[in-house]
Amino acid sequence: MASEHQGERIAKVIARAGLGSRREAEHWIEAGRVSVNGAVILSPALNVTAADRVSVDGTPLRARERTRLFLYHKPRRLMTTHSDPEGRPTIFSALPKHLPRLISVGRLDYNTEGLLLLTNDGALARVLELPKTAWERRYRVRALGRVTQDALDKLRDGITVDGVHYGPVEARLDRQQGANVWLTFTIKEGKNREVRNVLLHLGLQVNRLIRVGFGPFELGALEDGAVEEVPSATVIEKLGVEIVKESGADSAGPALDHEPPPRPSRHSGTRGGERSAARGNHPDPERPGRDASRPLSQDDPRKRLTPKKHRRDRTGGPRPSRPKPSNKPLPDESGQAKPSTNKPRDRR
């Protein structure tokens, strides 16, 4: 096993093998599902080298996958996340299933379309997102309203909108189309909703936003929803020496794109299996989530044993009884019953 200052962190090695994210790998380690050289480890604070044998749930780890980069034409109405609390569809659910586990380099808004970089290398994604990398983001914009080129030229010195300062912007007025204008917009920071906020400050309401370029990569003729891998030699060439060195990107190793990697099962593993066996829990196929060996007792609150006449109201007390309506005439002040004024119903 490698010493503390040799090799790479175990969670990073698992992630680079395409099995999951570093955070997921750390959870698997803490659950006792990862072993190194036959010994189960419980802490992710461990470095391993190529000489170490790493297994997850008893399955040996595959060879380290090389750095891979993909160009993706993101359609509108897709989230750039692995999951969405509101249940909206994500780009990762729309990608072909044969691709390895990928992460996005930055994000595009739900209604923004165009070029998005995807990679299997988390370190590369973080380096490309850093402000110091200063890769240009180029957009084609359609916006409702009118604007002059002179107003757009003033954005070259940056602008502050609602207390947020945006860096220099290169904007060109391309043409007027009815009530809309088409612009070419180039920024380097890529702050949240930067293009929309800056143009709204100029009185323009963006109704279509397409990213056509990111750094040395172009959207080109890539169709909507299509994904295309950048050749390894091109990746290393376009990234540059500094980015390659800082991110540790490499072109060695296999490309695991023939089938999805076997992700560890939530219920697999020795420790989890032993705990289930010790409890003797056997799922009931007719009633998921209940132990078939434990029938419902008479005292079980899940059984409705309370007769209807003893049901309680929402305040917790017994439901009040209601008197039945009577057809007898009510007495007057003297105690004599008043004659009924109701006319007999004609039943013909």
CATH fold naming of the domain at 69-247:
Pseudouridine synthase
Distance between the termini: 101 Å
The total of beta strands comes to 19
Q: Biggest β-sheet, characterized?
A: 9 strands, mixed
What is the top-level CATH class of the domain at 69-247?
Alpha Beta
Rg (CA only): 33 Å
Helix content: 10-25%
Order of helices and strands: EHHEEEEEEHEEHEHEEEEHEEEHHHEE
Structural class: alpha+beta
Count of DSSP helices? Answer: 9
Low-confidence stretches are: 269-317
What best-fitting shape do the alpha-carbon axes yield? elongated
Task: Please tell me the CATH architecture of the domain at 69-247 by its name.
Answer: 2-Layer Sandwich
**What average pLDDT do the residues reach?**
80
User: Beta-sheet strand percentage?
Assistant: 15-25%
Write the CATH homologous superfamily of the domain at 69-247. Pseudouridine synthase
Task: Report what the structure shows.
The chain has helices at residues 10-16, 22-30, 91-94, 122-129, 149-153, 194-201, 232-239, 241-247, 270-279; strands spanning 8-9, 34-36, 39-40, 47-48, 54-56, 59-60, 69-74, 103-104, 113-119, 137-144, 159-161, 164-166, 170-177, 180-187, 205-214, 217-218, 227-230, 283-284, 287-291. It is α+β, with helices and mostly antiparallel strands. Among the domains are: 8-60, Structural Genomics Hypothetical 15.5 Kd Protein In mrcA-pckA Intergenic Region, Chain A (Roll); 69-247, Pseudouridine synthase. The strands form five sheets. Strands 7, 8, 9, 10, 13, 14, 15, 16 and 17 form a nine-stranded mixed β-sheet that branches. The protein has a four-stranded antiparallel β-sheet with strand order 3-2-5-6. Strands 1-4 form a two-stranded antiparallel ribbon. Helix 1 packs across helix 2 (22-30) and helix 4 crosses helix 8 (241-247). The longest helix has 10 residues, at 270-279.
